[in-house]
Amino acid sequence: MLGSSSSSSKEGGNNNCDYSFKILLIGDSGVGKSSLLVTFISNFVHDLSPTIAGQERFGTLTSSYYRGAHGIILVYDVTRRETFTNLSEVWAKEVELYSTNQECIKVLVGNKVDRDSERAVTQEEGMALAQQLKCSFLECSARTRANVHQCFKDLVLKILEVPTLLEKGSTAVKKQILQQKQVRKPPESNTCCFQ
User: Fold this and answer.
1) From the DSSP assignment, how many helices (H) and strands (E) are in the chain?
2) How would you label 1-34 residue by residue, b for 16+ Cβ within 10 Å and e otherwise?
3) Exposed, middle or buried, 37 (CB in 10 Å: 0-12/13-18/19+)?
């Protein structure tokens, strides 16, 4: 019944990235978590069948799933009210219980806005829940790609604003950045006078 997806970059190696963060996508099964992620990382829109991550038989992994997350995207389906209700009654409580990072950035996402004629949750209700959960709010469509990139961009920009979250990012990547900054320092100017 319940599902979740996660995204994190592998530390070290030859990553061509400045930072590495652990970002979770959580919410009921079928709300489009995997579709949002696949739409974000690829140029194609995919119809995905529900994934098995987060199924009840994986409940024993819950605490390790949340451990060290820098950002959490709480997803509901705007056409299914129960998925919205479960965010405040189930998922938000789980975040509070298991998240080890108190400064973790959260974003509430209403997915499937391309099916507006079937809407069961208003945008105003989403905004009110986001305010209650003290997080950002955005409506998206994995099918049309509307606001998908904006969702991840906003989340990362907010993570970058929190110094402690940056400190908990990839140490291998941070060392690489520091080395690059040292190499890029402009040479000291050598002044000389001729008489």
Assistant:
1) 8, 5
2) ebbbbbbeeeeeeeeeeebbbbbbbbbbbbbbbb
3) buried
Token pair 């974003």: residue: 107
Q: How far apart are CA 144 and CA 167, in angstroms?
A: 35
Kind of pairing between the strands at 2-8 and 22-28: antiparallel
Q: Rounded CA gap, 101 and 70, in Å?
A: 7
Residue 170 has what pLDDT?
57
| Structural domains in the chain plus CATH codes | 2-10+18-184 (3.40.50.300)
User: Could you tell me the maximum CA-CA distance found in the chain, to the nearest angstrom?
Assistant: 85
Report which of 42, 168, 18 is spatially closest to residue 105, judged by C-alpha positions: 168
- Per-residue pLDDT reduced to its tens digit, 13-27: 445 666 788 889 999
CA distance 26 to 9: 18
Query: Between residues 1 and 3, which one has the greater pLDDT?
Result: 3
d(CA 73, CA 92): 11
Please give the average per-residue pLDDT across 39-47, as a whole number. 66
Residue type present at position 71: G
For 137, the token pair is: 């709010």
End-to-end CA distance of the chain: 85
Query: CA-CA distances (angstroms) from residue 92 to 39, 88, 135?
Result: 25, 5, 11
Q: What is each CA distance from 21 to 81, 123, 147, in whole angstroms?
A: 31, 29, 20
